[in-house]
Amino acid sequence: MGFRIFSTVAEQIAAHAAADTPREACGLLLGCDNRVERAVPAANVAADPLTGFEIDPALLLRCHREARQDGLAILGWYHSHPNGRPSPSAEDAARAGEAGKLWLIVAGGTLHAYVSTADTPRFTPTDLNILPPGAAG
């Protein structure tokens, strides 16, 4: 299946992750047809943002509403692993929720893409194709 993301959005996510280190950065991914068109940075409201992430619920509700108005959907979310591990953690698996969502993990300045599944393991690696700005993709 795979996903596509504009290079400017990928750069925004990587910059957010770098700026929030040593805390885990997090945010939402909006788009359509497996194409990420926007990243919405979120406050990490986790009890321990150094080792986990939780997206502000008020932002999540607002983004659902705004995405529908703009003809988009929440395709998934992103977060960083300041420890450098590129794969989903046990905590990520426990919180995976809905199957079919894109999980981008920023580790070592690189984006790693996974799709949540209903089965164990909870994630499957997926392709992430970087699109140049303005591409029809």
What would you say about this model in short?
It comes from Sphingoaurantiacus capsulatus. The protein contains three helices and eight strands.
Q: What brief labels describe this structure?
A:
single chain; 137 residues; Cytidine Deaminase, domain 2; 3 helices
What does this protein look like?
Helix content is 23%, strand content 34%. It is α/β, with parallel strands linked by helices and 137 residues long. Strands 7-6-5-4-2-3-1-8 form an 8-stranded mixed beta sheet. Strand 5 and strand 6 (110-116) form a beta hairpin. The protein is globular, with a radius of gyration of 14 Å. The two termini are 14 Å apart. This is Mov34/MPN/PAD-1 family protein. InterPro entries: JAB_dom_prok, JAMM/MPN+_dom, MPN, VirAsm_ModProt. Pfam families: Prok-JAB (PF14464).
